[in-house]
Fold this protein.
Amino acid sequence: MLDGLRVDPGSSARIAERDPADRLGRDKDEGEMRLAHLSERIDELQYLLYAEDRRSVLLVLQGLDASGKDGVLRRVFHGVHPTAVTVTSFKVPAGPEVRHDYLWRIHAALPARGALGVFNRSHYEDVVAVRMLELAPEDVWRRRYEHIREFERMLVDEGTAVIKVFLNVSRDEQRKRFQERIDDPRKRWKFRRDDLKVRERFDDWIAAWEDALTETSTEWAPWYVVPADRNWVKALAVAELVVATLERLDPRLPEPEEGLDGLRIE
Ligand code: AMP
Ligand code: MG
C-alpha cells in the first residue's frame, strides 16, 4: 500500500496524475479498525523509542490549504500518550526567524533523541511558498533543494528518521471545505480571503510542489503523496507510515541495572 504512495527517488512526483479520492483498496470500516490498531502500535513503539533514548522520528506534513494537516494529527495520534508527540506549526517567518537562514528555526524545532516530532509545514515552504509568492529570486530558492537534501541526510545519519507526507487534496474537495469554513461559525476564523488567491492558481501550486517533491525525494528521506479527499484514508496512510518507520528502527528497552531480580522494597 505504501509503495504506491512513495515518490521513487530520481522519478517525477506526478502529483496531478494521482487520485486524491483513492481508498487504497480498503473500505471505511476496515480502515477505521486498522487505524485504531495502528494508533496503539504507535503508542507502544514510541514508549520504546523514548526508553531507548538514541534515535528520533520526524514527520513532515505538507499540503495545500484545507488538505487536513491538523485533522490528520488528531486521528493518527488519538491513542498516543500526550507527552510523546510534539507538533510545530510553521507560519510566515517573523522576528528573529527572518534574521537567520531559513533552516535555523527548523533545526531548533527538531525532535530530541527519544522523541517523535511533527512539522505542520516546514522548510519546504522555503522552496514552494517562497517561489510562488516571489519572496526570493529563483537562484535563491532553487539552490535550496540541494541544501535540503543534504540537511536531511545529516539528520538521518545522526539518528533522526524523516517521514515526508504531501496531503493531496483535489480542487473540488478544497472548494467544499472552504465553503464549510465560511458557512460554519465555528470554523469561519480559519478562512482568509488570501486563501482564494492561492486557490486561483491551484494547478501552479501543485506544479511547484511536484518540482519540490521530485527534487527532494531521496533514499534516506523519501516523499509520500497521500490521497487527502477522505479523512480516514489520509489518517490510515500516515499511521501506516509512522508505524512502518518505528518498526524499522526497532527501538529496544535499555539494559536495566544489574542485580534487581527479586529485590524487595521494604
Ligand atoms: P496556516 O498554516 O494556515 O496557519 O498558514 C501559514 C502560512 O504561512 C501559509 O500561508 C504558509 O505558506 C506560510 N508560510 C509558512 N512558512 C513560510 C515560509 N518559510 N515562507 C513563506 N511563507 C510561509
Ligand atoms: Mg490557512
About this structure: The first helix runs from residue 28 to 52.
